[in-house]
């Protein structure tokens, strides 16, 4: 880790490897997994009762890891003398991931709040369940699409067009 001028402490390497390369895989797994579990919890109350606290923890970790990953990625980008257009696209898309991570966290909080409310009474909250389900689906699908788009640009930046050709 090193401090960048006028900025907070940035993780640049882990065990000699660029930190972005390692951290990005955590976000790539956690964000879609969180999104899928949120949609499941929104759709199926029995899943919500069992998984809500795990989903909330996953959303918190994703939200914490996202800026660490983008900062490490920015450091890696700064090492490039002449970054390609696709690498710039990857960096720009990566900077947007924090908004999706925050949205996933807000959905997880809404699911936890709904779980808490349902535990306090036997009253059915159909409107709240539908609203949280719709929110979980919209945020979940958009977050998964964002991760795929960011990852696609990143893989093309590293491996070129061969990244998606199956060769």
UniProtKB/TrEMBL annotation:
InterPro entries: DUF2231_TM
Keyword presence, Transmembrane: yes
Residue span(s) of domain DUF2231: 16-162
Transmembrane segments: 20-44, 51-77, 97-117, 129-150
Species whose genome carries this gene: Mycolicibacterium rhodesiae
The protein's name in its UniProt record: DUF2231 domain-containing protein
Keyword Transmembrane included in the entry's annotation: yes
Keyword terms, alphabetized: Membrane, Transmembrane, Transmembrane helix
Recorded superkingdom: Bacteria
Name of one Pfam family that matches: DUF2231
């Amino acid at each position: 880790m090193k401090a960048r001028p006028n900025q907070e402490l940035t993780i640049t390497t882990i065990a000699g490897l660029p930190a972005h390369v390692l951290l990005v895989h955590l976000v790539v797994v956690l964000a879609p997994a969180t999104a899928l579990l949120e949609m499941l919890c929104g759709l199926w109350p029995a899943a919500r009762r069992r998984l809500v606290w795990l989903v909330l923890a996953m959303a918190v970790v994703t939200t914490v890891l996202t800026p660490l990953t983008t900062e490490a990625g920015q450091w890696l980008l700064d090492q490039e003398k002449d970054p390609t257009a696709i690498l710039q696209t990857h960096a720009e898309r990566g900077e947007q991931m924090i908004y999706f991570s925050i949205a996933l966290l807000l959905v997880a909080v809404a699911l936890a709040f709904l779980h808490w409310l349902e535990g306090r009474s036997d009253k059915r909250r159909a409107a709240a369940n539908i609203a949280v389900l719709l929110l979980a689906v919209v945020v979940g699908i958009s977050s998964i699409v964002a991760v795929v788009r960011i990852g696609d640009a990143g893989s093309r930046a590293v491996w070129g067009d061969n990244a998606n050709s199956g060769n």
